[in-house]
Amino acid sequence: MDIDENTHRSALTIDGRTLSYVDFGGAGRPLLALHGHMSEGASYADLAARLGPEWRVIAPDQRGHGASDRAADYTREGYLADIEALLDHLHLDSVVLLGHSLGAINAYQFAARHPHRVTALINAEGCAELGLDGTNPLAFVLNLPTAGAPTKEAYVSQLGPFAPHFESVVRELPDGTWGLPFDPQDIYDSEERVHGDHWADWTAVTCPALLVRGTKGVLPAEQARQMVDRCPGTRLAELETDHFVHAADPAGFADAVRGFLATV
């Protein structure tokens, strides 16, 4: 994904593993943005531009995604440790934490367990409980080709019916072949490990919070209502979109975020 020429990409090493991140720059207050499964930090380029100079958006490629290395595991603890390591690396005592889907659950769990490091929370389509029926909605990724191809066109041809969904993210990999910026098995495993009842973490959040729900997304309306009721200081914003609220309605999402940030 292309990013603005003023954006700085850097990385840190955690236990021999590279964690890459993009810093959209500026002298404003820091906002750490966490993407969802099969995405990357650069997906927040539009939001960073819309928030303007008041906010410095920093967005990592979470473990196993984008330019970051694969990890030995995709546990809750592993994702949260990466967030803490990145904040320490950037010498940031506290930030506003924003996340979408997987990133939203990572964000509120980190806020619950490290309250002194999160001044405000923005949860975009991150459920307090999910996957309790034992199904994995990302099981389809196991049908994606894992071996790289000599050209982008060659890899896209291997995607078959999945090509319209993934062609835009196919890229040249470090070994010179073309493929996806994630391993399908990693994505499946990560989705399995994010499932569960996370109400204890959600209700432990003490900072001001914004919950953004897509009316056609994965967060049920009743669960969203309960999340607001059970976590004091949370406000709800609903957008007429699917699960990918920040991509489906970038202006509406930025307006909701900007309005919330003006209060914290």
Summarize the structure.
The protein has 264 residues and is α/β, with parallel strands linked by helices. It contains 10 helices and 12 strands. The chain has helices at residues 45-51, 76-89, 102-113, 152-159, 163-166, 184-194, 199-204, 221-230, 245-248, 250-261; strands at residues 8-14, 17-23, 29-34, 55-60, 95-100, 118-124, 129-130, 171-172, 178-179, 196-197, 209-216, 234-242.
Please tell me about this protein's structure.
Helix content is 33%, strand content 24%. The protein is an alpha/beta fold and 264 residues long. The chain has one domain (8-132, 195-261): Rossmann fold. The strands form three sheets. It has an eight-stranded mixed β-sheet, sandwiched between helices. It has a two-stranded antiparallel ribbon with strand order 7-10. Strands 8-9 form a two-stranded antiparallel sheet. A hairpin with a 2-residue loop joins strand 1 (8-14) and strand 2 (17-23). Helix 1 (45-51) crosses helix 10 (250-261) and helix 2 packs across helix 3 (102-113). The mean pLDDT is 96.
